Amino acid sequence: MDTNVEKAKKPRRCPKCGSTQVAKIIYGKKPPKKQKGELTVYGGPTIPVNAPNYKCLKCNSTYKHIN
Ligand SMILES: [Zn+2]
Question: Which end of the chain has the lower number of beta carbons within 10 A, N or C?
Answer without folding.
Answer: N
